Amino acid sequence: MTEAASPPIRRAMVLAAGLGQRMRPITDTLPKPLVRIGGKAMLDHALDRLAEAGVEEVVVNVHHLAGQIETHVAGRTSPRIVISDERAALLETGGGTKKALPLLGDGPFFSVNSDTLWSETDVSNLAAMARAWDPARMDMLLLLARRETSVGFTGAGDFVSDDAGRLIRRGQAASAPYIFAGVSVLTPAFFAGTPDGSFSLNLLFDRAIATGRLFGHVLEGQWLHIGAPHEIAPAEAALAAAQALDA
């Protein structure tokens, strides 16, 4: 019997409220999601990827220089944008997503860091994640980048995967092959029992690991780490090279 395909994921949360402190002095006057890479704001790179994958509505949270982000997305129709206002308090990735849950419906949704960027072949990685999502086995599905082929990343890596795609953290190992690439699929129900206020999505990563229900989907393409001003130029060069290959 052929297994039924997972339905498309139509909603997403884009995390755009952070202070972008490592990107100073640029982010003293410009929110990090609006920093341009290859002529396009990082936020638009994320929103365009979501639109290409069939996402119709995106909740964008705002805090630091919130008005600039609201103005920037005001004209977008694909996907439709809904603002989750965090001006009163910065809630981190988990708390910010939890605050936005009433806007995200009951089904699975993408959670996307607004500053995550990758080159892509003719495969939509987000659409592939939607097809791979299996709530019978998974509480969260993470987009993973290969540490050795990523641009600008100098860390030891985050996760180890088994043959089924189930993840555990690097722990005390010297290195791990995969980096969390800033995108996950999860459901509102998985936030049950989480704290009020500020907390990180790492809390949910660990909860899913504890039950063997954190899975990874490996990126087809190259992940571009952009944390500080000196990392912009290498990312732009890698993106331009990938686009030239696709032309």
* Named CATH architecture: Alpha-Beta Complex
Shape: globular
Trace the largest sheet across and list its strands: 5-4-1-6-11-8-12
State the helicity in percent bands: 10-25%
Structural class: alpha/beta
Average of per-residue pLDDT values:
92
Low-confidence stretches: none
Number of strands: 13
List keywords for this structure.
alpha/beta, 6 helices, Spore Coat Polysaccharide Biosynthesis Protein SpsA, Chain A, GlmU-like, nucleotidyltransferase, NTP_transferase_dom, 247 residues
Record the SSE blueprint.
Blueprint: E1 11-15, E2 36-37, E3 40-41, H1 42-52, E4 57-62, H2 66-73, E5 80-85, H3 92-100, E6 109-113, E7 117-120, H4 125-132, E8 140-146, E9 159-161, E10 167-169, E11 178-186, H5 202-210, E12 214-218, E13 221-224, H6 232-246
Parallel strand pairs: 1-4, 1-6, 4-5, 8-12
Antiparallel strand pairs: 2-3, 6-11, 7-13, 8-11, 9-10
GO molecular function, one term: nucleotidyltransferase activity
Domain Nucleotidyl transferase: 12-131
Organism: Bosea psychrotolerans
If you had to describe this structure to a student in words, what would you say it looks like?
The protein is α/β, with parallel strands linked by helices. The chain has one domain (11-246): Spore Coat Polysaccharide Biosynthesis Protein SpsA, Chain A. It is globular and about 45 Å long. 24% of the residues lie in helices and 25% in strands. The mean pLDDT is 92. A seven-stranded mixed beta sheet has the order 5-4-1-6-11-8-12, sandwiched between helices. The chain has a two-stranded antiparallel sheet with strand order 2-3. 44% of the residues are buried.
